[in-house]
Amino acid sequence: MGATRNGKSLSGSENLIIEVDEDKIRCKQYSWYFAPIYLLFWVGLFFAVIYPLFQALPTGIKISEEADKPGQFVAERAQEILLQISRLGPRVVGDVDNEVTVVNLLLAEIEKVRQVLRDDVYEMEVEVQRASGSYLIKGLTNHYQGVQNVIVRLSTKSSNSTSYLLVNSHYDTKPGSPGAGDDAAMVVVMLEVLRLVAVSGDPFLHPIIFLFNGAEEQPMQGSHGFITQHRWAANCKALLNLDSAGAGGRDLLFQGGPNHPWLMEHYRNSAPHPFATTTAEEMFEAGIIPSDTDFRIFRDFGVVPGLDMAGVYNGFVYHTKFDRYAVISLDSLQNSGDNLLALVWSISNAEEMYDTEAHAAGHAVFFDFIGLFFVHYQESTSLALNLFFSFGAILLVCISLWRMSRVTGQTMGTYAGVFGLLFLLALAGALLAVAFPLLMATFYDWGNRTLTYFSNSWLVIGLYICPSVIGLVLPMTLYLTHTKCNKIPHTYYLHIVGHANCVLLAILCLGATALKYRSAYLFLISLIFYVAALIINLLTRLHCRGYLWSLVLIVFQIIPFIYHAYLFHMFILILIPMTGRFGVSTNPDILIGALCGFGTILALSFAAPLINVFRRPNCMLGGLALVMFIFCMIAVSDVGFPYRPKTNVMRADFMQVHRKFFEYNGSISHEDSGYYFHLGDRNKEAPLRDHMNLTNLVRLGEDCDSELMCGIPCYRYCSAREHALWLAREEPVELPYPTVLEFLSKTVLSGGYQVRYEFRLTGPPNMGLFFKPLDGVKLLRWTFAPAMLDNPATYRPPLEVMLTYGIDNTPIEFFVELSKDDGNFNEPVFEMGVSGHYVSPHDKRDALSLEFLATLPDFAFSMEWPSSYERHIF
């Protein structure tokens, strides 16, 4: 049938197959004053839906309510134990509070459980493990002796299963921190879950191991000692690991498996308060998050699949003295307890536990939707979904373009050309959405204004989100406001803008899928809802009725906006506290800016360009620019000072060091004392200078070329030692007691080209060794784990060994064997550094150190202790 346009008849190959009213297509844009209302709608959606649901926690159950709520987790009982533990203060490995006091407290609480145990149904075994071992982790050899774990095995008498569920948390802390959040809160949650299971009388198929490990912060020695040495370790077939990078709030499931999606099924079916995302797992694996958990040890040394959950709220107090009982709410304990109790019941009754390897069916994609429900599917399903919706979206875009061409009588080539141009503009918008926040981050770094949002996270809105939104829509808006819409109506141009963004996201989804990033699901969510809106618009022909199609698109963008804004809000709240410990060499604003950029693209790619439905869209961009300017002015005022006492502190760790440099003949060539600073963030020492006398503070980078380990007793990971700062003092540091290295023997081995040195070391529970063979010398063997020596191409001298002892303070005896090309061992062969770290709160600091520490401003926290360092040449 022929159709008419403006009174003219079209026939033959020019006939339109779709009859429309062109006046409806070419309707006027809406009045400009509706545009602010449109933008405020999305802002309001965030604060009305996303923010309250993100903060939502279940109401904590009190002991008085227990009779009315049988079988439910009782947060108040856990809270009472938490108070007892946190009152002990810091609990570091080797200190009496960690090795005796808290162990006795845990045993006493477990004995209370035994007294109410349904012994007609269950058997309970309790023991304290003392483990010693050595292993390689993150570039250092970790050697430990006598670290302790408190272990409970609870089983049903009727069960004959040899597959155990392992539940783990740790009770030790960082020096100076009471560790209420990390990780005493999880310890008391485990105790209450143990009690509830023990008194329930309900049978379960598989025994449960409750592992309260006493050396996670060292790092992760307690879990290594259990999984490599304990008689129950081989039977552990699934893991629930509980840790924290903050204090209070919800527990994020950020690692799973690997390759055991059945665990996600149990999480979905049982956890009443889901909070999880695959993207967090991939960020963690990429090293973006500066933390680690025992999950790594169980996975790598025990090959135990599991779920890794951690508290992520209020990371500002993490590893500080402000991680106290008061910051852990009753409701947050209830949230953790509800989830753990449900998971323990579910997995301890799982049929998959009989043969977990039979269910190792690949990785899983998983995420929660604003805490309301949990979604997971296998990686193979992810591949199918990503391909189907990506190519399906591209096909529907082509159909839509073809239909537009038939409606307007323009050739498909005309529309293809317009689409190609708008696709390039969409790509430019996406790039600018990331580039503008990164430029802001760079400019603020150049102006020494890093971390302005650290105490006032709302500044991120103006500093990074507004520039990102401007960048996202700027190319499209400029083009649409300066283009004459003669052949193609404005409403079609705007519709094609959405198509261009759709194809761009489809390409990104396909690229992420090809690179095996499971976070491609983020693009998939956006595609699914755009495709749904497009199908409705095609079927109803709303795109031929002015801007009515945009209403359908807006409605279908609410769900992806809510999810993406929720997800990136979570990441920003998690990562802002972490930026305070990224180190001095990294500009953390780059990460926050990039997060805001990517979040804006995912949340607003389809919604933001619709400001062009209204007249004068440039005014909206100007308004956003004005908001950005106002926030920039606020950020450079006192409001933008990063730190606040107690709540948002600067991390200014330092050691009070006494150093001795011994030469080959045993003489001391240099001896001095000073303060060795390891600063946590990009602002370095600048905020401290107005409060502390740092006049002679120097960077040790130059000494790193001439001195072993820069001449400092760097602790654990020493990769950032070239950024260390040294403040000399005239009076020697008084150490609580000496660290003593005894040279026992030197033996030239058969053949004459190898030599063996033997030593004995005594000192504090935390010590370090550093080895640097001289030219022509190779380190062949030593007492410690051989992994570093077996991979000389990867681990180059100086080699670091961390030594820790717990309850067993027996002197550490060790040997090293080396070879030398010329066989001459009557001259220097290798350098060895020895450090002693007096991290116990009971180790006395000298008067001058206390006086210096008192000048630390109230907005700063220092993890500090006395240390010794000796450099020997043998």
UniProtKB/TrEMBL annotation:
<feature type="transmembrane region" description="Helical">
    <location>
        <begin position="492"/>
        <end position="514"/>
    </location>
</feature>
<keyword id="KW-0472">Membrane</keyword>
<dbReference type="GO" id="GO:0006508">
    <property type="term" value="P:proteolysis"/>
</dbReference>
<keyword id="KW-1133">Transmembrane helix</keyword>
<protein>
    <recommendedName>
        <fullName>FXNA-like protease</fullName>
    </recommendedName>
</protein>
<feature type="transmembrane region" description="Helical">
    <location>
        <begin position="551"/>
        <end position="578"/>
    </location>
</feature>
<keyword id="KW-0325">Glycoprotein</keyword>
<feature type="transmembrane region" description="Helical">
    <location>
        <begin position="414"/>
        <end position="438"/>
    </location>
</feature>
<feature type="transmembrane region" description="Helical">
    <location>
        <begin position="590"/>
        <end position="614"/>
    </location>
</feature>
<keyword id="KW-0862">Zinc</keyword>
<dbReference type="GO" id="GO:0046872">
    <property type="term" value="F:metal ion binding"/>
</dbReference>
<feature type="domain" description="Endoplasmic reticulum metallopeptidase 1-like C-terminal">
    <location>
        <begin position="647"/>
        <end position="871"/>
    </location>
</feature>
<feature type="domain" description="Peptidase M28">
    <location>
        <begin position="149"/>
        <end position="344"/>
    </location>
</feature>
<keyword id="KW-0256">Endoplasmic reticulum</keyword>
<feature type="transmembrane region" description="Helical">
    <location>
        <begin position="458"/>
        <end position="480"/>
    </location>
</feature>
<dbReference type="InterPro" id="IPR053973">
    <property type="entry name" value="ERMP1-like_C"/>
</dbReference>
<keyword id="KW-0812">Transmembrane</keyword>
<dbReference type="GO" id="GO:0008235">
    <property type="term" value="F:metalloexopeptidase activity"/>
</dbReference>
<dbReference type="InterPro" id="IPR048024">
    <property type="entry name" value="Fxna-like_M28_dom"/>
</dbReference>
<keyword id="KW-0645">Protease</keyword>
<dbReference type="GO" id="GO:0005789">
    <property type="term" value="C:endoplasmic reticulum membrane"/>
</dbReference>
<keyword id="KW-0479">Metal-binding</keyword>
<comment type="similarity">
    <text>Belongs to the peptidase M28 family.</text>
</comment>
<feature type="transmembrane region" description="Helical">
    <location>
        <begin position="383"/>
        <end position="402"/>
    </location>
</feature>
<keyword id="KW-0482">Metalloprotease</keyword>
<keyword id="KW-0378">Hydrolase</keyword>
<feature type="transmembrane region" description="Helical">
    <location>
        <begin position="621"/>
        <end position="643"/>
    </location>
</feature>
<dbReference type="InterPro" id="IPR045175">
    <property type="entry name" value="M28_fam"/>
</dbReference>
<dbReference type="InterPro" id="IPR007484">
    <property type="entry name" value="Peptidase_M28"/>
</dbReference>
<dbReference type="Pfam" id="PF04389">
    <property type="entry name" value="Peptidase_M28"/>
</dbReference>
<feature type="transmembrane region" description="Helical">
    <location>
        <begin position="32"/>
        <end position="54"/>
    </location>
</feature>
<feature type="transmembrane region" description="Helical">
    <location>
        <begin position="520"/>
        <end position="539"/>
    </location>
</feature>
<dbReference type="Pfam" id="PF22248">
    <property type="entry name" value="ERMP1_C"/>
</dbReference>
